[in-house]
Amino acid sequence: MLTTTLSPVFSVSPRQFEIATLVADGLTDREIGQRLSISHRTVSNTLANVYEGIGKSSRAYLVQLLLTGRLQVKQAIQH
Questions:
Q1: What's the whole-model pTM score?
Q2: What is the pLDDT, as a whole number, of residue 78?
Q3: Alpha-carbon distance 43 to 36, whole Å?
Q4: Residue 79: its pLDDT value, please?
Q5: CA pair distance 79, 31, nearest whole angstrom
Q6: Higher pLDDT, 78 or 63
Q7: Closest to 47 in 3D by CA, of 21, 68, 73
Q8: Do strands 71-73 and 10-12 pair parallel, antiparallel, or not at all (unpaired)?
Q9: Within its chain, how far is the Cα of 4 from the centroid?
Q10: Helix (H) or strand (E) holding 62
Q11: Using CB atoms within 10 A as the burial measure, which of 5, 48, 51, 62 is most buried?
């Protein structure tokens, strides 16, 4: 009998996704901050929140989620 395991999909804010994409491009927190005109500490804090949401604090895992389509932007709720 074959069993399949569903891979989880994680939703993040548009800004978190933008920062994750820059991580995947190989930029450091400081470089991301300069690119987005925000503090590198803001980048670090944003990534910490993403890591908490995905359950791992690993840039490599974050990139893997991006490359496999398992990190997505949250859809806005329309009223």
A1: 0.86
A2: 67
A3: 9
A4: 65
A5: 37
A6: 63
A7: 21
A8: parallel
A9: 25
A10: helix 59-67
A11: 62
Within 10 angstroms of residue 5's Cβ, the number of other Cβ atoms is: 5
C-alpha distances in Å from residue 11, one per residue of 5, 8, 15, 20, 57:
19, 10, 12, 12, 16
For residue 50, which of 73, 9, 20 has the smallest C-alpha distance? Answer: 20
Least Cα distance to 54 among 5, 15, 9 occurs for 9
pLDDT tens digit sequence for 4-53: 566 889 999 999 999 999 999 999 999 999 999 999 999 999 999 999 99
Residues 22 and 32: beta-carbon distance below 8 Å: yes
Residue type, 75: Q
pLDDT of residue 51: 97
**Beta-bridge partner residues of 71:** 10
Q: Is the pLDDT of residue 66 over 80?
A: yes
Q: How far apart are the first and last CA of the chain?
A: 45
